[in-house]
């Protein structure tokens, strides 16, 4: 418990910098209650007023917020989401992302575990931040990107003119949106340039290989059980089939696992998402599904940044 409370202190004090008099809203389920209790302890110690919203299994999957929940979010300075990650609940998560930073700031931790808190949140964010900034500088100078791997991934696209976000754990100011654990840089590809094939090993916590074929930013063909389940959730909504994100993992401690929250941060991996672009691209959607590409080779212009899953940037 000492390690968990140490990680919770770093999250509240260093990452979110919760201040006296702020309103903190924790959205949890029973599985994550020990984490919520640790976060609540340090938020209260910081002088904040803490409200814990327990999502019971009897009302899940939760797809949209209740009227009371909307009122709570409208008054919160800090919003923290830590429910077990489930595909049908993406619209609810989308609501929190879209609204959590309007008045305050939001920390998304879908599927967070005690182990992940202790291993990946209680770290030196500064070291990770410096590497992430180096990668962003290279990509800003050479915005033509290609990603390949031995499984058949082969896609090239432009990120010219698109803003890069540094998910370095700093969620301390109004309007900020980030993850804990942190450790990635991400943007949205220029949709019209995004044509090719992605072979992934994990999509939104569904383990197993799958494939996606894109043409000018739109998903036109696919294979795999995980992507089939994702698209079943999307239904006829065309916004759920548009490229929304390209990200690069920069957390040295993160591992590739069934938990996308950690896997997408794994050092030397890349990931793509269909659905909402978080304001970085043209697409707006209630959906956002990440797909992990392992052992990728990433080239920006003439410079190779990652080769076979290993960073060449130090």
Description:
- This protein has helices at 2-15, 33-45, 67-75, 90-103, 114-121, 125-141, 225-234, 260-263, and strands spanning 23-28, 49-54, 78-81, 105-108, 144-148, 154-158, 165-167, 177-179, 184-187, 195-203, 206-215, 218-223, 243-249, 270-275, 288-293, 297-300, 303-307, 310-311.
- Helix 1 crosses helix 5.
- The model has no long low-confidence stretch (mean pLDDT 93).
- By secondary structure, the protein is an alpha+beta fold.
- Strand 5 (144-148) and strand 6 form a beta hairpin.
- The chain has two domains: 2-120, Thermophilic metalloprotease-like; 124-311, no CATH class.
- The strands form two sheets. Strands 5, 6, 7, 9, 10, 11, 12, 13, 14, 15, 16, 17 and 18 form a 13-stranded antiparallel β-sheet that branches.
**Number of helices, counting only DSSP H or I runs of 4 residues or more:** 8
N-to-C series of helices and strands: HEHEHEHEHHEEEEEEEEHEHEEEEE
What general outline do the C-alpha atoms trace? globular
- The level of helicity is 25-40%
| N- and C-termini, Cα separation | 34 Å
Radius of gyration: 19 Å
Strand content: 25-35%
Secondary-structure class: alpha+beta
Quick one: biggest sheet?
A: 13 strands, antiparallel
Low-confidence stretches: none
Total beta strand runs: 18
What oligomerization state is this entry in?
single chain
Total domain count: 2
- Mean of all residue-level pLDDT scores: 93
Blueprint (SSEs and pairs):
Elements: H1 2-15, E1 23-28, H2 33-45, E2 49-54, H3 67-75, E3 78-81, H4 90-103, E4 105-108, H5 114-121, H6 125-141, E5 144-148, E6 154-158, E7 165-167, E8 177-179, E9 184-187, E10 195-203, E11 206-215, E12 218-223, H7 225-234, E13 243-249, H8 260-263, E14 270-275, E15 288-293, E16 297-300, E17 303-307, E18 310-311
Parallel strand pairs: 1-2, 1-3, 3-4, 4-8
Antiparallel strand pairs: 5-6, 5-16, 6-10, 7-9, 9-13, 10-11, 10-15, 11-12, 13-14, 14-15, 16-17, 17-18
Helix pairs in contact: 1-2, 1-5
């Amino acid at each position: 418990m000492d390690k968990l409370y140490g990680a919770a202190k770093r999250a509240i004090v260093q990452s979110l910098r919760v201040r006296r008099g702020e309103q903190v809203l924790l959205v949890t389920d029973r599985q994550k209650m020990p984490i919520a209790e640790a976060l609540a302890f340090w938020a209260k110690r910081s002088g904040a007023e803490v409200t814990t919203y327990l999502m019971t299994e009897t009302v899940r999957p939760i797809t949209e917020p209740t009227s009371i929940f909307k009122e709570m979010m409208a008054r919160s300075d800090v919003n923290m989401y830590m429910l077990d990650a489930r595909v049908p609940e993406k619209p609810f998560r989308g609501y929190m992302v879209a609204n959590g930073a309007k008045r305050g700031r939001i920390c998304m931790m879908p599927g967070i575990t005690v182990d992940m808190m202790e291993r990946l949140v209680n770290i030196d964010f500064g070291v990770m931040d410096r590497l992430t900034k180096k990668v962003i500088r290279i990509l800003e100078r050479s915005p033509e990107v290609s990603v390949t791997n031995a499984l058949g991934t082969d896609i090239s696209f432009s990120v010219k003119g698109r803003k890069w976000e540094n998910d370095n754990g700093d969620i301390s100011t109004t309007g900020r949106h980030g993850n804990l654990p942190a450790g990635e840089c991400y943007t949205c590809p220029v949709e019209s340039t995004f044509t090719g094939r992605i072979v992934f090993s994990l999509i939104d916590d569904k383990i197993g290989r799958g494939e996606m074929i894109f043409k000018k930013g739109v998903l036109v063909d696919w294979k795999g059980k995980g992507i089939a389940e994702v698209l079943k959730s999307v239904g006829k909504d065309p916004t759920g089939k548009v490229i929304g994100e390209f990200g690069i993992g920069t957390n040295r401690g993160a591992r590739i696992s069934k938990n996308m929250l950690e896997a997408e941060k794994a050092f030397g991996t890349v990931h793509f998402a269909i659905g909402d672009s978080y304001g970085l691209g043209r697409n707006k959607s209630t959906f956002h599904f990440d797909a992990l590409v392992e052992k990728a080779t990433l080239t920006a212009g003439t410079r190779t940044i990652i080769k076979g899953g290993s960073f060449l940037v130090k």
